[in-house]
User: Fold these one by one.
Assistant:
Number 1:
Amino acid sequence: MLARLAELLGAPELMAIETGADHPRPLTRAVLGAALRAALDEEPGILAPVSLHPSTEAALVATYRDLRQAGPRERARLRGCSARAADVVRLTGRARQLLKGRWYDVDDLSDAAARALEAGRVSLEDIGPVALHLPDVLRPSEVRLLAALSERTKLRVIVGLTGDEQADSAQRALAGLLAGRLGCDPVDVDEAMSADDVSADDVAAADREPGGAERGGQEFPTVSHRSTTPYSVAEIVSAPDPESEVREAIRRVLAHGESGGSIARCAIAHPGSRRYERLLAEQLELVGITWNGPSRGTLAEAPEALVLSGLVALATPPLELERSAVIAWLGRGPIVTSRGEPVPAGGWDRTSRRAGVVAGIGEWRGRLTAYARRCDVERPVDSMLALGLRDFVDHLADLCDELVHCTSWVSVARWAEAALKDYVAWTDDDVHRQIVLALEELPGLESLEPLAGLPAPVRHERISRTLTTSLDRAAPRVGRFGHGVVVAPVASLVGVEAELLVIVGAIEGELPGRTSDDPLLPVRERVRAGTASLIRERTDVRDRRHLVALLCGAARSVVTTARLDHREGKPTILSRWFDGDLGSGAVGTSMGSFAGSLHRVARGDVPACDALDYELASLLMWQEAEGAGPHHFLAAMAPEFAAALEVGRARAGSFLNRFNGSVGPNLDSGAVGQVSSGKLLSATTVETYATCPFRGFLRHELRLEVIDAPERRTTIEPRDRGSLVHEVLERFVKEWLDSGRPWSGWAAADHVRLAELAVEAFDEYERRGLVGKALFWGLEKSQILLDLHRFLDSDDRCCRATGRVPIAAEYNFGGASAPPLELVAAGRPVRFRGKIDRVDRAPDGSLSVVDYKTGSSGSFTVLDSDPVGRGERLQLAIYGLAVETGPGGSGTTSGERSPRDSVCDVGAVSAEYRFVSSRAERESIGIVLDERARHRVGEALDVLVAMIDSGSFPARPGAPDRAGYKNCQLCEFDALCVADRDRAWQRVRSDPRLREYVALVEPDDLSLADDLDPNGATDAV
Ligand code: SF4
């Protein structure tokens, strides 16, 4: 490699330059960026409005590299093109001044090497004759180096020709240029020749002295055109998508190996895009094929580097420490706690959500401490998690704060080292070494771009951008050349001789890639200035040259293309070259779909690329075979697969089984455990089972819950709003009860007190982070206050009209206030607990249960026709039964009883929902606990308790409603449930074990169950 030779010869020359204490260092992208930013800071000129934008820096970096090849006269001519061109030339020139002597680039190395050769300061004894095989594009400095080299040793340059006029034009021009510079004529070499041939035979056999003398009929320096054997593409494979395309490429390589070829002599070329690079690396590693090639990514993509860059992002001033950002960072790489243990990222995510943290170190500290206290007794593990997270974020905040106050690159480098030491568990020594090297270049930036004096946000932006570009370097190469299949971009494989070449990604936009002009120095200005050497080669010309040269080295070539671009969601177009001359004569193969490719594997057209490929092809054939038996060989080999087959069949069945809701009675948690062990049930738990048994199972048996991210809350959650209103009204009524004041209706002073209690509750909910964004919360507070005052007015009217007086608030049966309600249902004792918002007594001694609701009244109107709302609205009835023997109740029986038994006067107890919301269409909806109501409660509880007892929990989505189903509208498990839940329910509802449940909850639809075709599915269990 010419660059390597330049380094070998030129580096000692550069090191000898006096630059104070330091030797010059290789110029990196980060340092060049800093130099250009420094030039922009001094005098941005016409670029002032965009001088801080990262794209400006990126464009200047590219233009700088072009202008490094320009001499003083070319730069002067460019300056005259426009004000913008003048400023760009000035800025790149200033950056060059800043860098000169301290950092060196490829041109400095080549020039230093040429100087050393010309002055005789280097010995070429160890190097000997030099052959430059298939150069692509040479920079002027490299041509100068070759000229100097030709004076000191035998030099032969072999320029490849392909026979393709378009592809060869640049190479012929290069040969002409070199020949002119080296003082020789280009020679045509007709036969195919490899690099080995040139160095071992031609050069070694030549005996002409350096400098142009002839010996033994061979003249040096020599510039040869290398002719090649004809090239062609044997096959063009059209795949449905890039994934299938890559798998097909691997199948071709395997087929080559199976047919006796060498896999190490196979090459897979891609267009150089990250997508194909990644796909190939992933698939080859999945299949287990040894491969080698350039790295599959950059250092910046290594998990450890992501930890560092994420930390810098967290330290963006002003230090917000947003919960979502901190939690996302925890998942970026191998982060450890101060004790060196992996961070419990999932646990900390849940904890911070529950604690209501949104952002700011104050919230992290305060809310996590308060949350830890709240669960100290009942959930000590959660409490410990909260305290661990609080301490971790405390340290994190200090570290981020340190970066905010770093005012020199030395301190930034030290900070980064300390951060990596504190938080990263290293898994890859190469990555560790490279990151340390990248950090070592930071102190050198002090002379280019001092941080002191910059405002904190600008300083942070510079640090962040520099670290990002410092880490944006190629990760270590994968494998060694010659070991396994070589995988690389098309341009990197030119000159490789392969038995089989597979080119993937043959689509427009990839091969050729898209061409773009330089926005700072467009081609038209470069042409006008007569700087032809600075005109960038067009992408399509360059790509075609590389592609044809690559085909020349292959004994057999296969090209693959994908018909659909998943990223852009649109069809792709086959590369113009393979649709044209390069593809003529090639056999076309079209893979219909993923299943289509498996069919080809199954037919034996191509080998399976791995065991999975083979198994899937075999399964496809098995599934499609007429009368496929119940067993596939994989079921015998893999119990998991056998189980998956069983699940699939069972779910398609028309009877309840363990895969569609029948989990059996042997649970010891949730409602099943509560029923069987006599523990306390709540009315709402039973209601949930009535509405959708599967939802009840997930919520109460498995105890799953969805914990909302507090930052996504725009306003207070309906559940929290309800709790707040309940708390306010509870305290309000209790205060009145405790005051002993005689009842005379709610007066103005009561309204004032209610508002005071509401404000106290608002403060508490704000402290707990439950209220959402300030703007919406402000509106919500006004609405809640309005609703409370309206409710008090309506309550006053109601009490005056009926003569009712509150006698209890938050009556807690099965808790602090009273023993549980003990009933008999389904032939077994069932004990209930609950918290009744309020109990009122009328002048005739009858009692009224009041339950506050803060939403709409629509879903409660079912109580008008059925006092238990088909089992889904049992709460009022159960609360009514509880107060019969509760405060002011005349009930005399205690202990177990049937809900059907009256223990006090008929009609002595009623229960109602009172709506504390302007969104409710009605002020109240209620029931009277009469004979019919008692009977319905008994019926519903018998059915539901028996169902819970038996562990039958089918998913019941309810009637279609808007875009979904009625029961699923507000269900937290919507994303978890099967997509065809409605059909699944229609299948199992005919199961005899569910007949009574269906009769309770869907009495109008019973005929449907009878009409179901029992042959519609099979029951395989
Ligand atoms: S999403 Fe629907 S069917 Fe599924 S558990 Fe929830 S309510 Fe039941």
Note: DSSP finds 36 helices and 26 strands in the chain.
Number 2:
Amino acid sequence: MGTLTSNQRESLAALFGDRVTFDRTERALYGHDIASLPSLARPLVGRTVPDAVVQPETEAELVELVRWAGANGVALTPRGRATSGYGGVLPVRKGIVVDFYRMQCVQAIDAEARTATAQAGVVWEKLDAALEPHGLTLRLYPASYPGSTAGGWLAQGGAGIGSFEAGWFRDNVVSARVVMGDGSVREFQGTELDLVSDAEGITGLISELTVRVMPREELAVVAIGCPTSHTLQRLVEFIVDERLPVWSLSFINPSMAALRNTVPLREHYGEPAEERVLLPEAYVATLACRARHRADVEGRLAAILKPCEAEVLSERIARHEWESRSKLMGFKRLGPSLVPAEAVVPLGALGDMLAETARKVAQPIVHEGIVVRAGRDGRPEAVILGFIPSDERRLSFNFIYALSLTMLRVAERHGGRAYATGLYFAARGASVLGAERVARLRAFKKRADPHGILNPRKVLGNGLLGGLLRMACAAEPLVRPFAGHVVTHIGERPTRPIRGVPADIAWYAYSCAQCGYCLDGCDQFYGRGWESHSPRGKWFWLRQYMERRAHWNRTMAETLLACTTCELCEARCPLALPIESSWMRLRRELVDGRSEASLPAFELMAAALRGANNVWAGRRADRAAWFPPDLLDTHGPGHPAANAYLAGCTASFIERDVCIASVRLLDAAGVDFTTLGEAEDCCGMPMLVAGKWERFAQIVRDNIRAVREAGATTVVTSCPSCDMMWRLIYPAWAKRLGIPYDIRARHYSELVAERIRDGSLIFPERDGKPVHLTWHDSCHLGRVAGVFDAPRQVIQAMPGVELHEMERRRADSRCCGNVITLVKDPAVAAEVAGLVLDEAQATGADKLLSLCPCCQLQFRIAAARNGASIEVVDLAHFAAEALGFDLPDPLPEVERQWACFEPLIALMQPAGMADLMAALWPEILATLSDSDQRMMQRIARLPGAAALLRRLLRRRLPTLAPRVAPVLCGRVAERVPMPESVAEQLPELMPRVLDALVGPLADDLARRLAPSLAAHLRAQ
Ligand SMILES: Cc1cc2nc3c(=O)[nH]c(=O)nc-3n(C[C@H](O)[C@H](O)[C@H](O)COP(=O)(O)OP(=O)(O)OC[C@H]3O[C@@H](n4cnc5c(N)ncnc54)[C@H](O)[C@@H]3O)c2cc1C
Ligand code: SF4
Ligand code: SF4
């Protein structure tokens, strides 16, 4: 089994279209799981970059894929979300990684039978959310609930939250549909599930499963501190023996409690965003039971507390521990790596095993465990997860890694076993699964996988690696003393930049737990579905880059630039990593620091900004054309006021109803404010995200000066991005630039809501039927600035209006996709914004209200593309109309401008640019000397001319392209319908954009252009 041939690639592409990737950068992100292997062990596993990654959507596609792989002798490695750490998802024979990302459909929920059926790629959190409206919930789930799949858990096997009552996951599965190695589909039930569970996909690809679920009930949580591992054991034995009605029981050891007390807290723009809850340095057991059983559980527990010297901890600790149940790797920020060890032990050995491990492992080892009341053979068991914080970049990591075997050996001595097999413990299959089951699996695999293509080298033995692991186990007592002497420093301590990656970001890249919780919240990711677009993928790529296994390329530069800055990832990251701000800083490193081109649309905006200080290439003289003449005396430029209303570029030039309505509302509310008129400039947000920080710094200076000169102390905005700039970004930049900053930022909705509350603004009664509205929280005003209530108060103050909230709202609200998606990948923008439109329509509302001009632009364009029926209306527009004002319909201008910018941006992409230039060879060649032209003609007649011309073009394009800018302008004008202002400025914009883009894109352009140049020269 080797690299795919070009025919094989073509046939895969024919089967899966854009759901298969052969891109080297992308594939490299699908060759690992959460574990970091020590450097000395990596050669044993070998290179694990697959030849392709495919994302099937249906069982039928899985069948086709398996048949194709069988016929072509290509290995298939299934992948849920790669949150396991046993190497099961590693494509050790390369071939194809089968990513279940697009198989997430919840197919049926049977409330009576209490079962749920879903495709295997469904993430637990999503399945649980689907159960909620039926009054149901999961019987059990892994702690990786926000980021792992149902199929992955069945294939991997395991126990988790709820296992105290529900047991091992396999026992909660009713049936599983599986695509076998010969392409047949079979449903497994009862004891036959043993052939699929814990089998890591070696016997088939699970396409769908039906699991048992339970009624959703309110839970109560109790946390208990015990002084020793033996008292912890005694407490748990009491709970088991007395059959206390507990649903879930987990625990941590004192070292884990101590580390959790020091882990950095989530921050928001330099301020703590969460409170620290201090844990006692003890064994802390967390019990969850149904609320109706609380009194019973607490009452009966009283009898055991004293003999165990245990104490019930505060409600706050209990709640905190429960809420942190999915964050068990939160302390990884202190490592930045972790050496993991995992084992299952009989409950009766828990105390001894933990005490002996602590004695033998002379490193700070932290433990987290869960208890299964009826484990193997119906006896109680504890699953113990151990971690030793360490740094994988150091040689000592290799020695400390050996200590993971210490814990396993101790567990085995006490009647325990490894948790799973996967790749690393395949040689321990008999102990993990039982000898009889291994024999059954082996025999079945022979029949079920006749071509030997399903997840090779996993579970049933893996030759050399297994043998070496056995040897390592035997040698563990010899290595242990060395490892014990390694000095482990715990705590965040970034030291120096690595290959231009700032020191702290380098640290975060290694601390990222690769848990994937960030994936489903990230609109950049779910709009495209490929790892490189997720925070997890980017952190992993940075590691590779810092280890010189990857280099900056356009794919990764663009993926960094395409982050929409929505900040949802940060709310989901259990390590509280500053993700968005890290990407922001790397954008600067790339664009200002390494002269990489920004996104073409940003280059266009940057060029436009240099002219008339707005990003839409409007005329400066038109900037304030929207301003209502009757308000000039009271709020026009020159009127002295403490508040300055800034409209922002998009409202000033495109959606003018937003700023007209905002000033009408502010005026009606009695707010004294002024405006800057033509002197208002762009807030600079597009330059910040474009990585053009030098330009941004100048904008910050100019804007602060302009507001000061107007005599204002408060900036009032309608655009959330402007608000974010003035509220959070400018203060930090002013400090950095040494400019005094005493300007406050308010959103108009906050001022209007205040006047509604104090009675100075009252909306008139409305006749007719109530209007049904839903509300979209913008990322920058909501999640970032924390303004959620004011807009709702404005809506609720209007008579005859009914507000229907969307499923995802406030801090959890979906991002619209931001203009960044629109200007980068319009088709993706339509999908991402389409999800919000779908949610809005699901509320039954007639109108979707929003206050962000950019969100509205996005929604309007997406609604037109997707045929969504809900009307998109600006909040200020709606409220000003309720006050009796007439406002322009923004849609015609949105359509006119987008009809210009969409094709213009497409022409600035490498494909578009190459297409334009390929039609201009006579003009381009005319700019060359006669001798250069003759030389090119000679080259064109040589064998391999395209490759030679490609090299030549790569060097010459950066100087050639700007020379033909005037001709290019003409050709662009022929193809793109432009507003007058854009057409006027194009001759100035075009050379600047070409100057910025052609150099960094020269390689790509040369590749695309060389064949057409060769053909042109030959034809001459
Ligand atoms: C923070 C955190 C907490 C965790 N908590 C728990 C816990 O409480 N209990 C626990 O048991 N584990 C836990 N894990 C480990 C891991 O999350 C689980 O094993 C999880 O079930 C793996 O799911 P996945 O979708 O990521 O599968 P993957 O890791 O992608 O795959 C696991 C194995 O299953 C195979 N596979 C995946 N999908 C399929 C399919 N459709 N058909 C056939 N084979 C397939 C893969 O090839 C691989 O061998 C935790 C991990 C993390 C990071
Ligand atoms: S800020 Fe938004 S788009 Fe950017 S990485 Fe985070 S979730 Fe994804
Ligand atoms: S960024 Fe955070 S949420 Fe995403 S994979 Fe890393 S640790 Fe997990």
Note: Residues 521-524, 535, 563-569, 579-580 surround iron/sulfur cluster (ligand 2) (CB under 6 Å).
